[in-house]
Amino acid sequence: LSLFALALRLLKCLPDGREANSFCSFYIRKITIDDFDIGRPLGKGKFGNVYLARVKKLEAIVALKVLFKSQMEKEGVEHQLRREIEIQAHLKHPNILRFYNYFHDRKRVFLVLEYAPNGELYKELQKVGRFDDQRTATFMEEISDALMYCHEKKVIHRDIKPENLLLGFRGELKIADFGWSVHAPSLRRRTMCGTLDYLPPEMIEGHTHSEKVDLWCIGVLCYECLVGNPPFETASHTETYKRIMKVCICLCLTFSRLIQYFCIETVKCLCQDHSSGQVAAHPRNYYVPCVIL
């Protein structure tokens, strides 16, 4: 039986929560690479690779993220890894990729993660071009619920984008990368981070930011799911910055009438309702965009 076939069988037969309980009991003791059968590569990153793996004693399928210490030290991102581990280990939500454990040897750090068999949202979007209204709405509901949970825990993700979102066995969305996340009890930060196309205006200007940067990213993600590319994407960084600062959004002709109506009415409502707490409390009121039809 192949690792992939075994993964599907396990994911189908195990009820929710049972895998997690098994891992909890297993990972009380120290683990090493010898506890795993390593399968095919699932992805490649700047600091290492991700592999399909099986925990030998449990015959459970996981994703094993292998990071090289020398590369992380060279880029000075060891603190980001520590923070990622600390944050993700304490998050338990159906739309957040589970972090089970970690271990290391002289050269590498290993993260034991939940396996999401349907891969990256980014690759799925590239394959189909764009998603329909219903599928996009489902994704937005799932990521909104996950981020509400994070914000209740005083965690800001700060790098929501299709490349950092995975699809589970049933096609459900899972936030997978917490490398730029931060635990901020005051929910106020100043560090500029994330991906250019998804940066909010206050980050570009170097102002302090809050959990609302994640809400901005939800809006950008929603647009990209419906259209196939981010709303502020241009050929140059400078022009992209300008479009973000002006919040200049083009409502694509491929939008359904329902989506166009929703966007227009939402903008009209927000432009008129400056007294609402969600809009007025934001330092830039960037919810009042320039809309081009």
From TrEMBL:
Zinc-finger is among the record's keywords: no
GO biological process, one term: cleavage furrow formation
GO molecular function: ATP binding; protein serine/threonine kinase activity
Listed name of the protein: non-specific serine/threonine protein kinase
Reactions listed under catalytic activity: L-threonyl-[protein] + ATP = O-phospho-L-threonyl-[protein] + ADP + H(+); L-seryl-[protein] + ATP = O-phospho-L-seryl-[protein] + ADP + H(+)
PANTHER family (UniProt xref): SERINE/THREONINE-PROTEIN KINASE IAL-RELATED
Binding site for ATP: K46, K65, E114, Y115, A116, E163, N164, D177
Crosslink (Glycyl lysine isopeptide (Lys-Gly) (interchain with G-Cter in SUMO2)) position: K161
Keyword Kinase belongs to the record: yes
Family annotation (Pfam families): Pkinase (PF00069)
Record keywords, A-Z: ATP-binding, Kinase, Nucleotide-binding, Serine/threonine-protein kinase, Signal, Transferase
Domain of life: Eukaryota
Transmembrane segments: none
Domain Protein kinase: 36-293
Catalytic residues of the enzyme: D159
Signal peptide: 1-20
EC assignment: 2.7.11.1
Family: Belongs to the protein kinase superfamily.
